[in-house]
Amino acid sequence: MAKTKYVYYFGDGDAEGDETMRPLLGGKGANLAQMAKAPLSLPVPSGFTISIDVCQEYYKLGKKYPAGLDAEVAKYLNRLEKSMGKKLGDEKDPLLVSVRSGAAESMPGMMDTILNLGLNDKSVLGLANKTNNPRFAWDAYRRFIQMFGNVAMGVDHDKFEAIIEEVKSHRGIKEDTELKTEELQEIVTKYKAMYKREKGEDFPQDPQKQLWGAIGAVFGSWMNPRAITYRKINNIDERVIKGTAVTVMAMVFGNMGDTSGTGVAFSRDPSTGENHFMAEYLINAQGEDVVAGIRTPQQITKAGSQKWAKENNISEAKRKSEYPSLEESMPEVYKQLVDVYKKLEAHYRDMQDMEFTIQGGKLWMLQTRNGKRTAPAAVKMAVDMVKEGLITKEMAVGRIEPKSLDQLLHPIFDPKAPKKVLTKGLAASPGAGCGRIVFSAEDAGEWKAKGEKVILVRIETSPEDVAGMDAAEGILTQRGGMTSHAAVVARGWGKCCVSGCSDIEIDYKKATLKIGNTVMKQGDWISLNGSTGEVMFGKVPTVEPSLAGDFGQIMKWADEIRQIDVRTNADSPKDAKVARKFGAQGIGLCRTEHMFFDGERIKHIREMILADDVEGREKALKKLLKFQTDDFTGIFEAMNGYPVTIRTLDPPLHEFVPNEPENQAIMAKEMKISVEKVKAKVDSLHEANPMLGHRGCRLGVTYPEITRMQATAIFTAACELTKKGLVVLPEVMIPLVGTVQELRNQKAIVKDVAETLIKKYKVEGKLHYKIGTMIEIPRAAITANQIATEAEFFSFGTNDLTQMTFGYSRDDIASFVPEYLNKKILKNDPFQVLDQEGVGQLVRWGVERGRSVRPDLKVGICGEHGGEPSSVKFCHRLGFDYVSCSPFRVPIARLAAAQAAIEHGSERAENLKLQNHTPIRAKASEIEE
Ligand code: PEP
Ligand code: MG
């Protein structure tokens, strides 16, 4: 068997690795190799990279190195020494190296780096002599002891700082830069003594010991708490990003005097995306000085420097003398750096984030990577780069993180504004919400009517609260997960919501909200960031987003590329119009029950629930009929030419009746019946497990008059509009079907109403409709071949399907799912990201079995997953016709669908062929200005 190669060399105009080897060499190692060799051939200090495989082995072997690594490192160190003409630890002219971390995905600042390695009591003298700069040599040695002591040996950073401070104050010095050679020597002596006290041994003088200590520290930093947390927050999958590489490279020094310096540069502005070179540097400094923020960095370009000076009220004279740009202070190096960044951007075809050092007037590149950027910057850069001919529109579309569009669609907190974060809950619905605290839906409505902005704070919300939620700028709940009532409704409206915020204490009686030590009263200002889950004290100012321009261009390209439609979940004409603006090609789910809560309507639905017989129910339903017909008319008008899926009544009836005695009394008075009767009815509706109780099609089966009324409303509206010349495409959807018989039962009612009305209005051949079902019960997915004999379409209700497949109550997950995520029992919250291995297999089964008996079966998804990028991509692959999501997620789904078409075109084609299905697309949507 061939021996595994662990180490890869770069330098002297060549390299063993290249940019394609990121998974093995990490981003830093791979890009250094790429920069070192032709065609880029940039000035990169020589070095070698120990592969990520070694990191994995290191942990597998219980923090030991694989056999043969030491010999390989020795061989490459030797090559490096030859290339540099110096030896590590040499007493006369020592080679110094840096030891750097680098995973396949960049984790800025999360892992460790050690500089100036190879210095000891003897080589420091050689370095001082050779450079003719003793101050520099002793400064480098004291930095090395500090970095190595802290990073590799775990000596507290503050202990080093205390020594510097002691020497500085003893000698009356303010800045580190004022320390002279003797003072630095004194610091080194004190550092070593302190090190010995702390570690019980001398500071290592042997460069080999130093080197292996540093390599171990870098591998060890892969598992430091900071790095682990970063991976968790950024969803970095450790099965894909498996560890860090270690790069050992020859040191170049930015701290050798005034013709030296170090800096960080971006080829375009990472916060706005503007195409101008942006960088900061420090003269006579090492990398950590820039990061530590001890000195004020200077701008690279003259224009940038002048802008910076203006913003900081610094006069032109002062700027020129104290903070000149690199363009002014070292014009030759500046020109070279411009040349380098242009070359790098053209090569990587993306914005580059670079680190460089200037040693004695010579430029060295230490790192390049695709730079991190804000969402607006990502969109601008992608569009600009297509226009410049640098990338294709497919690359542009592929480059934008769909979820990041959230930042562009909702008002955001002014990033410059100061904020005091009190706590964090679930980022349930993105956006920025700022208002006065109220604790009830009624108060929310009343305060809003008085012109106040409010935040509704509830232990949890119920459908009764919708009006108050609508009135509020944002919603904060103590309980509930991502698919809790508050979260689903808020997302539907694009309203900011933080849910499941378990460490807040709400006292409705006293009207107080307690977070930690802060107690707030009704009327106090609070701010919610629904994109991060942050709950902030007081009033944090916001700024509005724009949907046109570059954003519109990216969306246009996405629409040209994608192969599935994107519809919306909307329950009112208002939401339908908003969704059209976001490019929705129809409605995938209209939850009709949401129409029952407004004003008068709730009274009629309660009257229906309280009725003792069919006549009584029909009488009440008649009153609701008008409201529903009007709503459907508004929705059909907004969606002219696009399909509208309307679901018959779904939730358990107890959600419509009042539970509190005072509300029961009001209801009794309004309905002219006794309070006892109301109470008895409410009690009779109580179910041990309502989500698995009398809901969904079970309501329609037991009270067929409800389905009949809803069908009448749908088809009356549809027929009237068809007569007026609109194109209405109703799709009636029966919820919570588990057996084909249930569907058959409900379908017969809907069909009867539809045919009668179509005849009555004489719109035969003009009004086309479909009757289908939700697939949200595992049994429905399993028997999809039976169900598809009756259903003309399937819409996967993955909220309930997830609930029933996992057996997790969707409203009660906040108590254990966070712990499951922490312990890695779950990779994601399955109510947010479709569980492709489990729930997804039921979905696959459902589509395949359904289309096996009805090849033209239309298939969509309307659970919350319909707007989550990885789930949208999964639906694309399985051959779905559309996904449906809340209005504000429509652009995210459009982009994710386009990326799916780019990434998984052939898998979809194969599935469609197997399923014998030819998709019919709705007409291409456009954003309406
Ligand atoms: C679902 O279950 O996925 C669904 C869309 O229905 P609801 O969330 O209204 O139960
Ligand atoms: Mg459901």
Cα Rg: 33 Å
List the bound ligands: phosphoenolpyruvate, magnesium ion
Largest sheet: 8 strands, mixed
Helical segment count:
36
Helix content: 40-55%
Mean pLDDT: 91
Pick out the low-confidence regions.
924-929
Beta-strand proportion: 15-25%
Q: Which secondary-structure class do the elements indicate?
A: alpha/beta
Intertermini distance: 65 Å
Order of adjacent strands in the largest pleated sheet: 15-25-24-17-18-19-20-16
Shape: elongated
Number of strands: 34
Q: Give the oligomer, counting copies of the same chain as homo and different chains as hetero.
A: single chain
Q: What is shown here, in short?
A:
The protein has 929 residues and is α/β, with parallel strands linked by helices. 45% of the residues lie in helices and 17% in strands.
Tell me what you see in this structure.
By secondary structure, the chain is α/β, with parallel strands linked by helices. It has 36 helices and 34 strands. Helix 21 (549-561) packs parallel to helix 36 (890-914). The two termini are 65 Å apart. Residues 589, 591, 650, 776, 797-800, 862-863 line the site of phosphoenolpyruvate (PEP).
